[in-house]
């Protein structure tokens, strides 16, 4: 078993005699019996770039009989004049692997240096770090009362921290804006330590350490804690299919020629994790538990599950999701009372684009990315037509889409309990060009979507916020962010696309943001818009005229919402039966009108003709 208490680096209290630091690393199959030596090189961060101050080198001891071939050392750093050795602060460290040569006093450098695969902190780039405990006060969580929201109540916002607003503190700064959109869940693209050159983080190197340049340990904890205080869940995008080539369990084992305990062959995205190996499964499971307990994370978006799914009882993704679900049952924020009979609200969202329905149905996932909504939206934006399949996707007709409503899981006592499941629905995500670029592209050597066409995005936004499933926004779509993403190559992941916050204020962004805010408020306010009951007015909708209608219904309250969408350039009339008698009020422009736009229905299924503005829509609510 992997025991984090004996791994990584831990610094003791600093006193006049200096500081003690304990290091530990597992290197299965690499032992002192074969002449191997493991050294750690340590340097105070404040001395990093002084040419006359060199790292101190210490040899680790091989722990005979340890399950995973543990190497450990407790070192003492005494104060030295002209340096920061022995003082408080952050110490950088890296490992080196050497091997004695037969019949010689010489030692061969096998791996010149490698990072710590269990580092809890890092510096910029490939260096591991350990911080003395007096450098900052222990973090005090204030989220004891926090409960992860129900899946049906989520509005998710996907963001890349650096592109969105620089760092973890920058995300905190934008929380009021996110809440104004109705957002109550952040999906953070990879936040574990990235290399210094910009990339999205899908070449993982450190699995236990948040990126130092974004605020590190304290910064991420503060972000999660603040989000929880503001009613926002936080889930992490995690990459368990492949690693960076310099990941120690790839690099070191290639250098030694020994079989890696984690890595199989090289794949299209990098060296691939081999889940047939016990150590690989334990490593990934330990990482998940670490984020749940140490950082109070509410769930995970699992990257590239298509390649990790080996059946409902498989040892890859299904095994991870099952164990993580069971671990979450021990944590109070995932159940309302923590008593038997409750399912965990842990969010486990897969990226499995080739068979999302199957994986959602047959694993302990709660949700899944699926591209149908996005692909149909892009096609409609490009052609100026309406695809009837789009509406079926919006209302998640189960016979059409194949997505389950619930699945049987287990409660804290292992007894069966039904848990709701649903896919994420989105117009945009980090993997694709933004929707405005499918409407029109500006002529330039660097392509950008034509934001003057922002109004054509409006019916798509209304559909997103009134759909069945969990709506997800990608950063900046709410004010027509207009990047065009290359279809292949390094420019996809290594070109920084900062959110253009100035768009928030301009003539195109301002009205679109206002629409998103209104829609966010409506979805959060009216349970009919979050329900699993929908009906498509297929007979009344006129695809050829680009006008469609559907309704949402909340059974226990009887609340009804009727949604009209017009994707054409001009006004369109459409007549539909209103299912229940009573008063229906149009809510999108409620605050803009001098008088309410209301329809009084005297008898069930009475039909009314509605005139819908071009590239717009209406939402009528009967409470």
TrEMBL record:
Xref: SMART domains: Aamy
Positions in coiled-coil regions: none
Record's signal peptide: none
InterPro entries: A-amylase/branching_C, GH, GH13_cat_dom
Organism domain of life: Bacteria
Segments forming domain Glycosyl hydrolase family 13 catalytic: 130-523
Example GO BP: carbohydrate metabolic process
Molecular function per GO: catalytic activity; cation binding
Family annotation (PANTHER family): GLYCOGEN DEBRANCHING ENZYME
Name by which UniProt lists this protein: Glycosyl hydrolase family 13 catalytic domain-containing protein
Annotated organism of origin: Dictyobacter vulcani
């Amino acid at each position: 078993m992997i025991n984090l208490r004996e791994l990584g680096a831990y610094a003791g209290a600093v006193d006049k005699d200096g500081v003690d630091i304990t290091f530990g690393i597992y290197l299965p199959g690499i032992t002192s019996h074969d002449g191997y030596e493991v050294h750690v090189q340590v340097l105070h961060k404040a001395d990093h770039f002084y040419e006359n101050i060199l790292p101190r080198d210490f040899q680790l001891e091989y722990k005979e009989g340890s399950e995973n071939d543990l190497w450990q050392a407790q070192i003492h750093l005494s104060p030295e004049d002209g340096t920061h050795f022995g003082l408080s602060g952050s110490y950088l460290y890296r490992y080196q692997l050497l091997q004695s040569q037969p019949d010689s006093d010489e030692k061969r450098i096998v791996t010149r240096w490698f990072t710590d695969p269990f580092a809890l902190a890092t510096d910029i780039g490939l260096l591991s770090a350990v911080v003395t405990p007096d450098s900052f006060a222990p973090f005090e969580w204030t989220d004891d009362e926090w409960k992860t929201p129900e899946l049906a109540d989520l509005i998710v916002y996907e963001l890349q921290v650096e592109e969105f607003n620089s760092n973890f503190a920058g995300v905190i700064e934008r929380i009021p804006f996110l809440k104004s959109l109705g957002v109550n869940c952040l999906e953070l693209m990879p936040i574990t330590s990235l290399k210094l050159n910009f990339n999205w983080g899908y070449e993982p190197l450190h699995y236990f350490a948040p990126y130092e340049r974004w605020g590190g340990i304290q910064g991420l904890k503060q972000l999660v804690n603040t989000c929880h205080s503001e009613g926002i869940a936080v889930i992490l995008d995690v990459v368990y299919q492949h690693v960076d080539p310099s990941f120690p369990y790839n690099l070191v084992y290639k250098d030694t020629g020994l079989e890696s305990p984690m890595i199989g062959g090289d794949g299209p995205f990098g060296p691939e994790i081999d889940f047939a190996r016990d150590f690989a499964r334990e490593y990934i499971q330990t990482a998940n538990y670490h984020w749940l307990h140490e950082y109070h994370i509410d769930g995970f978006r699992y990257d590239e599950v298509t390649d990790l799914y080996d059946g409902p009882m498989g040892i890859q993704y299904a095994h991870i999701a099952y164990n993580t679900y069971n671990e979450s049952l021990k944590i109070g924020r995932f159940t309302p009372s923590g008593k038997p009979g409750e399912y965990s609200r842990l969010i486990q969202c897969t990226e499995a684009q080739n068979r999302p329905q199957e994986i959602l149905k047959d694993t302990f996932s709660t949700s899944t990315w699926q591209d149908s909504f996005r692909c149909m939206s892009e096609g409609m934006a490009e052609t100026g037509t309406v695809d009837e399949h789009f509406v079926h996707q919006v209302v998640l007709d189960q016979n059409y889409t194949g997505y389950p409503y619930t699945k049987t899981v287990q409660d804290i006592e292992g007894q069966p309990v039904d848990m709701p499941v649903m896919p994420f629905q989105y117009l945009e995500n980090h993997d694709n060009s933004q929707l405005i670029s499918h409407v029109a592209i500006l002529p330039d050597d660097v392509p950008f979507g034509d934001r003057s066409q922002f109004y054509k995005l409006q019916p798509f936004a209304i559909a997103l916020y009134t759909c069945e499933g969990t709506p997800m926004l990608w950063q900046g779509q709410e004010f027509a962010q207009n990047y065009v993403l290359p279809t292949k190559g390094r420019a996809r992941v290594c070109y920084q696309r900062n959110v253009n916050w100035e768009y928030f204020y301009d003539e195109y962004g301002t009205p679109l943001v206002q629409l998103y805010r209104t829609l966010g408020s409506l979805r959060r306010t009216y349970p009919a818009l979050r329900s699993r009951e929908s009906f498509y007015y297929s007979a009344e909708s006129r695809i050829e005229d680009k006008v469609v209608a559907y309704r949402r219904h909340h059974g226990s309250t009887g609340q009804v919402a009727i949604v009209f969408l017009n994707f054409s350039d001009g006004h369109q009339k459409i007549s539909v039966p209103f299912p229940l008698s009573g008063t229906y009020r149009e809510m999108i422009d409620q605050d803009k009108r001098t008088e309410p736009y209301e329809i009084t229905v005297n008898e069930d299924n009475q039909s009314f003709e509605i005139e819908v503005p071009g590239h717009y829509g209406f939402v009528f609510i009967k409470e």
